[in-house]
Design goal:
Blueprint (H helix, E strand, L loop, with lengths): L8 H10 L17 E6 L14 E6 L14 E3 L17 E3 L17 E3 L15 E2 L7 H23 L1
Parallel strand pairs: 1-2, 2-3, 3-4, 4-5, 5-6
């Protein structure tokens, strides 16, 4: 079934609820700022000149996608396949990249000022970004245990205070 180009964000969201296969779909020039696109196939999707500012794109196959001149500033990009994608002249300022396959992707002229990444091999890109993102600072391994300990102590103190009132 071939999907028609959505006229606006509401049309796309309605389509997305029915069908997670957005392959070859033309989404160029749409304003999708802040959208959450999770778990879909978007092979060869056209997102050129699309506003995806402050969006979340995760768990997606965007192999061969066209993201040229798109706005992905302050966007979270996690666990997606951007193999052979076109991101020329894309605005990626302040974006976060986690575990993304960029093999063969073209980042010519892409602006990645303030972007951060982890688990991305930028050297595998066809054309690496002019200024690759800074690495994300990983949390120390002891931090979750510390937070759990603090929560446990607060709960114990709250329960003891409650019992002493009774």
């Amino acid at each position: 079934m071939e999907l028609e180009k959505p006229a606006n964000r509401a049309d796309l969201e309605a389509t997305f609820k029915k069908d997670r296969d957005l392959s070859d779909l033309d989404l160029s020039n749409l304003d999708l700022a802040g959208i959450r696109l999770v778990g879909f196939n978007g092979e060869k999707i056209d997102l050129s000149q699309t506003n995806l500012s402050e969006a979340v794109i995760a768990g997606a196959n965007l192999k061969g996608a066209n993201l040229s001149e798109s706005q992905l500033n302050d966007t979270w990009v996690a666990g997606i396949n951007l193999e052979n994608a076109d991101l020329t002249d894309a605005d990626l300022t302040g974006s976060r990249w986690l575990g993304v396959n960029v093999s063969g992707a073209d980042f010519s002229g892409a602006n990645m000022l303030g972007a951060k990444s982890s688990g991305v091999s930028w050297s595998n890109a066809k054309v690496s970004p002019p200024e690759p993102p800074e690495p994300l600072i990983p949390f120390p391994v002891w931090l979750p245990a510390l937070l759990l300990g603090i929560v446990t102590v607060v709960l114990i103190l709250a329960l003891n205070k409650r019992r002493s009132k009774e």
